[in-house]
Amino acid sequence: MKLLDILTALKKDISYIEKELYRGVETSEPLLAETSLHLLKAGGKRLRPVFVLLGGKFGNYDIEVLKHVAVPLELIHSSSLVHDDVIDNAETRRGQLTVKSKWDNRIAMYTGDYIYARAMSIIAELPNPLIHQTMAKAMVQMTIGEMEQIRDFFNTDQSVRNYLLRIRRKTALLIAISCQLGAVAAGADKEVCRRLYSYGYNVGMAFQIQDDLLDLRGTEKQLGKPPGSDMLQGNITIPVIFALQEERIREDLLQLIHRIHEDGDKGSVQAAVGMIRESGGMAKAEALADRYMNKALDALEGLPDIKTKKNLRDIAHFVVKRSY
Question: What are 96's strand-pairing partners?
Answer without folding.
Answer: 93
